[in-house]
Amino acid sequence: MLNRFASPISSLLDARADGHSLPAGLYTRDDVFEADLDVFFMRHWIYVGLECEVPEAGDAVVIDIGKISVILLRDDENEIRVVRNVCRHRGARILDAGPTVVSKLVCPYHQWTYELDGALSYAPHMGKDFDKSCRSLKPVQFKSIGGLIYICLADEAPKDIETLDEVMRARLAPYDLRNAKVAHQVDVIEEGNWKLTMENNRECYHCSANHPELCVSFVDLDFGFDPESLSAEDREQAEAHFAIYAERTKAWEADGFPSATVEQVRDCETNFRTQRLIIAGAGESQTEDATAASSKLLGKMTRKDLGDTHLWGHNSWNHFMGDHAVTAMVIPLSADKTLVRTKWLVHKDAVEGVDYDLHKLTHVWIETTNQDADLVARSQAGVSDPAYEPGPYSRFSERALDDFATWYIDRMRAHGY
């Protein structure tokens, strides 16, 4: 690891002004990209998938992150495992990226064969004295939080993941994500740095002008506004909205549904925010008309009026509603390219065309993600222009961006940059 005072990256970190966006090099430079992978995707907990993606023994999903590849699978004892996708013989990849079904993990190069728990069971022509017991696939630390799989690729994993687990266990329990299924998945490659992708997601300053489909069910006031810029009528409407919020949150919590805002966004290792948000309009789901997309509700849900339990992490965002859930994972591909993988979840027994319409289920977030991809590309083009200089965040609508940038700088410095 480079000493931060000797690293040219340190000057960029030092140049960041409070309340302002990051210096250009932190979005554009290849050495910063490699440092980001090292710090935020190898040494912190990251969201990579779902238990329900591997419902039966032998189900597996391969996730590639930079030069690293991991296998999320379910073993013969019905337990979740996460192992490195690297054969212990000469390092060949065992499985290709994406989902698959296997009875054993067989390296295609020399047929070294591993059980689903990662133990090496067959290594031809290695001699009688070869000890297979010390050549198991390397395990990866993971934690299932309500059915969401988080991994940490470092030897020493941040311990404050326990706060996220404690907060989300009760919030996610009614949705029973372990008994959901992925109804649809879309991968979008955004032409921008991963931090621009995350910043764009963490504010709704841009929503009313760019996301007509989402704004049917989304209330942009929830993400801040300047009260002095509002007319008396709009200010009165905003005050009424937040009065309803307080009343609704109190009622939800009285009914046993945790709803209040919980943030761990500064002075921490594991960055997250959660809150139960009111859904606008019909109030049921993030669809074109804000009504439920699936008649078969998730898990133990019996109500459609419980809003949107949202959860942010530093490489993910999630929305959990009575009828379906949307999860998005962010994986950096280069300094100016980012993969956004979005999945729509429904009850495992829901039948397409009977219980839900796929277009209604997916339309809002397909459109929103495509619109965001355009905005991120515009942002990347702008920060790459010599005319760019870091601009001020709105203290009303972009406080979360200031939190994120501050956390980013602090974590980079904590790891020696």
Automatic annotation (TrEMBL):
This is Aromatic ring-hydroxylating dioxygenase subunit alpha. Gene3D superfamilies: Naphthalene 1,2-dioxygenase Alpha Subunit, Chain A, domain 1, Rieske [2Fe-2S] iron-sulphur domain. CDD domains: RHO_alpha_C_GbcA-like, Rieske_RO_Alpha_N. The lineage of its organism: Bacteria, Pseudomonadati, Pseudomonadota, Alphaproteobacteria, Hyphomicrobiales. Keywords: 2Fe-2S, Dioxygenase, Iron, Iron-sulfur, Metal-binding, Oxidoreductase. GO terms for molecular function: 2 iron, 2 sulfur cluster binding; dioxygenase activity; iron ion binding. Residues 46-151 form the Rieske domain. InterPro entries: Rieske_2Fe-2S, Rieske_2Fe-2S_sf, Ring_hydroxy_dOase_asu_C_dom, Rng_hydr_dOase-A. The keyword Transferase does not apply. Its cofactor is Fe cation. It comes from the Bacteria.
